Amino acid sequence: MAVTIEDLYRSYGVLADAKDDLSQHKDAYQVILDGVKGGPKEKRLAAQFIPKFFSSFPELADSAINAQLDLCEDEDVSIRRQAIKELPRFATGDNILRVADILTQLLQTDDTPEFNQVTGALVSIFKIDAKGTLGGLFSQILQGEDIVRERAIKFLSTKLKTLPEDVMTKEMEDYVFAETKKVLEDVTGEEFVLLMRVVSGLRVLQTVNGRQQLVELVVEQAFLEQALNPADPDTVDRLLQCTRQALPLFSKNVHSTRFVTYFCEHVLPNLSALTSPVAELDIQLEVLKLLAEMSPFCGDMEKLEPNLNMLFIKLLEFMPVPPEEAENGETPASEEPKLQFSYVECLLFGFHQLGKKLPDFLIEKVDAERLKDFKIRLQYFARGLQVYIRQLRVALQGKSGDALKTDENKIKVVALKITNNINVLIKDLFHNPPSFKSTVSLSWKPVQKAEAAALKRPSSEEVGTGDSIKKQVSSQPRRDARQIYNPPSGKFSATIGNFTYEQRGGFRGGRGRGFGGRGNRSRGRIY
Description:
The chain is built from 23 helices and no strands. With 527 residues, the chain is an all-alpha fold. It starts with a helix and ends in a 53-residue tail after the last helix.
């Protein structure tokens, strides 16, 4: 006979009045367990009563948990929510791992209030037993369905950092790091980014040694021991994502040497052949930006000279030779080569950074003919640069506040920063011998107050490229009497600002478990 509301209240009364002698009323608790087979009202009451007396009947623990799970799968969403809300009360002793595993699987729900209930329940059992909860989460990440795995990883990436230190102890953080390394053996690009967010936020890894461990983790994912296949967008995507994750970890004590070396030896020689994982991405500029950002943190490099030479070769490719003049000394505008400022800033900055480690490179490692050609290109580029800087200053003169926030003026502000950076670096290279002492902040990095103020008044470095350039320019007749270079459109990439690209990409497949290793289980009894 089906259990009624009256039966449930009667059994509840018996157990509530029994106080210290609850174990003698096993039959009453069984009636409450049977309530899950009743109608909606009976089920809602059972969802509240089962956990209340759960700890008093250890011999019925499995039956009680299974009954509550039946309610967590009920067709009525209000019953499911009530059952889920009470699940943390079952998280005692050996049951914690099972409850965590169940709650992790329940993350697959598409009902927002129910999903929030599940995440709230997971957070609450973290405070009961952090290791057991983590065990349940990682169990599903490693073995669960794709949707459960994806949401469990997202849960860790958003919620772990909110837990207090008395919950996420050093032991727990070490456990998270160890388990994450297992998961990273086979991940998608999106999963990799989220998992790196998880481990990067661990307090135990906020030391030099900890950051070095994280870099090692990224190096392993980046496959830096393998040659690059520039035609494979998944391979290129993997390298981009890994490099982006490594960038924030680099410092004067945690070096970027292996990444910079790989870029010089495998990426730069294939720069024009790189296949972008996203159609609208300027893959060449993206790669050069990453190289520029890493270069200040490069340590001792085994093959410094050939790598610096590769940077030098690429820099020459983007610095055009001055065009031939007509008999009247003028150069037709159609024949003026485009100056690729965005690319040159990256390459010049990287060359400048690595050049500090081999300051005599241009004097002793480059033959006289190549050096002469390089200086001619530098001089031509510097003249075109000055024209563009003047045009930008005129365009931005007197503008401040909201006027500088228009899309057009934002581009001009960044363009001015790019040209000023190149100007400073070229000035260094025109020293005799070449100097590598100047410091610039890359144009796509956040603007500091001091830099913003510099837009209002030009410094001596922004006015010209130094005495050596001025002397060379003045020695050539009629050069200063005409507009040397009228910058055409399209010299600055549309992706001039910060990196915004984040792509789910080909990390998984061909390693470890792969997609095929996961069971395709139904929602049914998944526990």
